[in-house]
Design goal:
Length: about 550
């Protein structure tokens, strides 16, 4: 008997999720600007304001993520991934040509275009990954979001540490990696990542939770491994190469899950030769209700009523309630959407300002090597993302705790982090980098499932990319305007024609303003948590009511 792998099998489903994790592991290139910003600044003789506006151009690419959102309902996952990978290859490839001096430096506006392309490439990758995986694992949205967003947070440290270990942190080589590696990984995901029917039984959900725990463990091991490499100082060439080899092995470890599923499928096919696995799937992949057996009686009842309603004037459908599927227009007409949008701006906008300016913040405070702060923000951002997804999911099942509550907690903690950085006490930049990384990670990971829980999955790709507009908007407001103007106001001209600022006063006012913005975001998140309490109570009851049904499904 020949073993056949069904497109809807658990093996294909988990193999697709592994490739999704790999894509997310290399798609955080928007957060790596600090690693090569100084090379651009010196090569193009830019002021800090001009450099910050370059970083804004990178983040403006996120605004064009609306195209990826619109495409997510019309194009397949492989096509969306290909668009993103090719765009990243061109955008970062041209930047590599400039920084490596293989071509003459381009004009300022031309560099803005290619930075924008690089930034936009990640929106196609993230949209393809998040929309597909949230739909494939819709009963475990919190863990899925935490794992995927967690690996995005780790991607900065993965790229930074691999480049430092193998190429001595050369900015040109770093940009070459940003151009080539995502393109190759996306080609792998194109082969395996597809939308498949979600789990329909309590046993399937329990198995998913068990496998997600494995992903979490592997991710935590990778994060700790990266952290140890960062805090142990400089390493020799052989030790650095060994580090890179072990890191690549750890990234490949999640493959054990689809291999385990493949072995299970093979054993089932051997023990039940007359079972046709594909025959079990008789419904189309998309647009099906989670309870098909209830759909049939409803359809019959509708047919019986239809003749009586022939003379009834067409009635306009009622506006959907929070928790049901919304179009983008319906979502934008709700107060809850704008609360979520504005609070998201306060969190991710200020966080991006720190990440984009980390190089200059470290230099202003007297640190020669700022790569440690970039890695700390990335690694602790990972812990914030991966823990918040699982913890928020646990408390929904346990007590119906609204997920926006965790956003509120992260906002107030982030404000404390900014105050610490403004005080510029010894070691405060280390502590501030960790706090900001954690809170920024929580903000990103928790907002993803909130959007799907409040406004549904039908138009989730577009709604998600509307929320992601906060990245370029926040970068422009807090990094391009606030940090750029206030830094240049404190800076002095150097002999080379640029402007620089040394001392704790350079960014003090910037940190204080951002702390105040986080307090505003905290208040908005508390309001949203109160307004959505009933929604999460319903989600909790639906999760609990499904448990007793498990035995009867056998």
């Amino acid at each position: 008997m020949r073993f056949h792998l069904s497109p809807a099998s658990s093996t294909r489903k988990w193999l697709g999720f592994v490739t999704a994790v790999w894509v997310q592991s290399i798609s955080g290139n928007n957060y790596t600007f600090s690693n090569y910003s100084d090379a651009l600044k010196s090569l193009m003789a830019l002021t800090q304001l001009e450099l910050n506006n370059l970083s804004v151009a990178k983040d403006v690419g996120k605004a064009f993520g609306l195209l990826a959102g619109l495409a997510s309902d019309r194009l397949t996952t492989p096509v969306i991934l290909l668009i993103g990978s090719v765009e990243g290859l061109v955008g970062y490839g041209v930047q590599w040509l400039v920084v490596s001096r293989k071509i003459q430096p381009l004009s300022y506006w031309q560099m803005c275009i290619f930075l924008c392309m690089g930034g936009n490439s990640t929106t196609w990758m993230n949209t393809a990954i998040l929309v597909t995986c949230i739909r494939n694992f819709r009963k475990n949205r919190g863990p899925v979001s935490g794992i995927l967003k967690g690996y995005v947070g780790l991607s900065t440290a993965i790229f930074t540490d691999l480049c430092a270990a193998l190429f001595a942190s050369d900015p040109a080589t770093f940009l070459l990696l940003l151009a080539v590696v995502p393109f190759v990984i996306c080609l792998t995901a194109v082969l395996f990542l597809r939308e498949v029917p979600p789990s329909s039984t309590a046993m399937d959900e329990k198995e998913e939770s068990k496998f997600f725990n494995v992903f979490n463990i592997v991710a935590v091991v990778i994060a700790v491994y990266l952290l140890i490499f960062d805090v142990t100082g400089s390493h020799g060439r052989i030790l650095s190469q060994a580090f890179a080899a072990v890191l690549l092995f750890l990234l490949a470890c999640p493959l054990c899950i689809p291999l385990y599923c493949m072995l299970q499928d093979f054993n089932r096919s051997s023990s039940k030769p007359n079972t046709d696995i594909e025959g079990l799937i008789t419904e189309p992949l998309l647009g099906q209700n989670s309870e098909p057996e209830m759909a049939a009686p409803a359809a019959e009842a509708e047919e019986k009523v239809e003749p009586e309603n022939e003379l009834v004037v067409e009635v306009k459908p009622p506006r959907p309630s929070v928790g049901e599927d919304h179009t983008i227009i319906e979502a934008m007409r709700t107060f809850d959407f704008w609360i979520l949008f504005t609070s998201f701006l306060c969190g991710v906008g200020t966080g991006l300002a720190v990440m984009n300016n980390m190089g200059q913040i470290g230099l202003a405070l007297g640190y020669v090597d700022v790569s440690i702060f970039v890695s700390l923000t990335s690694i602790w951002g990972f812990f914030g993302r991966i823990l918040s997804g699982s913890v928020s999911e646990y408390f929904i099942k346990k007590a119906g705790t609204p997920r926006p509550f965790w956003n509120a907690a992260s906002q107030i903690l982030m404000a404390v982090g900014y105050i610490l950085m403004a005080l510029a006490l010894p070691g405060s930049l280390y502590v501030g980098s960790i706090v900001v990384g954690i809170c920024y990670g929580v903000r990103l990971a928790v907002t993803v499932p909130i959007a799907s829980e409040l406004f549904g999955l039908q138009y989730y790709g577009l709604i998600y990319n509307i929320l992601i507009l906060n990245l370029p908007l926040g970068s422009f407001l807090f990094s391009g305007l606030l940090a750029g103007f206030l830094y240049d106001a404190q800076a002095t001209w150097t002999a080379g024609g640029g402007k620089t600022c040394i001392g704790s006063h350079c960014y003090r006012m910037v940190f204080m303003v951002m702390a105040f913005a986080c307090v505003i975001g905290f208040g908005l998140d508390i309001v949203l948590a109160i307004r959505t309490k009933k929604v999460y109570a319903k989600i909790r009851s639906s999760k609990r009511s499904k448990k007793p049904a498990a035995p009867s499904s056998s």
